[in-house]
Amino acid sequence: MKMLMLFAALCGVAMAVPFDSAAYMGESAPMGLVDELTTLGFTKLVEFIEIAGLKETLNTGGPFTVFAPTNEAFAMLGTHYPKNMTLLVNVLKSHVIAGKVMSTMIKDNMMSPTLMEGVPMRINVVTWWQTTTIGANGAEITLFDKMAKNGVIHGIEKVIRPIPLGNMMEAMEMIPGLSFTLELIKMAGLDSTLAGEGPFTIFAPQNIAWMKVPEKNITALKANKTLLAEILSYHVAPGAFYSTVIRPGTLITTVQGQKVLFNPKMCKKEGILYKFMNEAEVTLADQSVNNGVMWLMDDVFAKPMVF
Question: What transmembrane ranges does the database entry give (predicted)?
């Protein structure tokens, strides 16, 4: 009788204590996003999250999807970390979207608003032979679907900077070195198109690129709006293209109808990979804006190339 009473008491205790399958299997239950980031080794990102006062929000709120730059990605910035607290908060928020986005849900040119108001996250998927590369605002995703109790983490290989703000025309207005290209775009009547929904990729010649063109040719372009629009349209492609996602040898069809060639070249002496479109060197690539991507060029595409 005493044995039966003891057995019943033990059963009552067992029923009162919830079954912890994670503990039974020797696994730890998922933690909050920030704690999981620490466990995964994203310690520099966690440091900035704590400095910015976002730990509580990202650890307990949500669900969120965090695109987490590695420690090496932050090291690539050198000393160019956001010093202004408002800017730091905005940069971090632009790496987080509301909701849980698993890799199986991702589609090419998928757009999701980030926690930074007015700044979207554009995700691109490129399949090359038997490999697929996925990028978030130009940062290649190298780690997928690490779960937390309030969201999911994807690791990326660079910090997304500058923050993608405004459309292509608004962004060019803020870059002094593109003032002449901007003037010609307006002259050709393409400004409303490039301020539109897109997405577009522009291979924008800097002012120094136009200085290499003979003055008589510039004069002729300004006098012939049809030709000017054709030349400029050869510098714009429908779609969002990032050098971090596309492969060497990729041909991109422009609005003008002809193609441009992504043509990176390795300098063996320096050990540096230089990016080229056709034979024009890229001085800055992968600058995200709300309706596409900007590449800055040190040359004007002289004429459509035949491939």
Answer: none
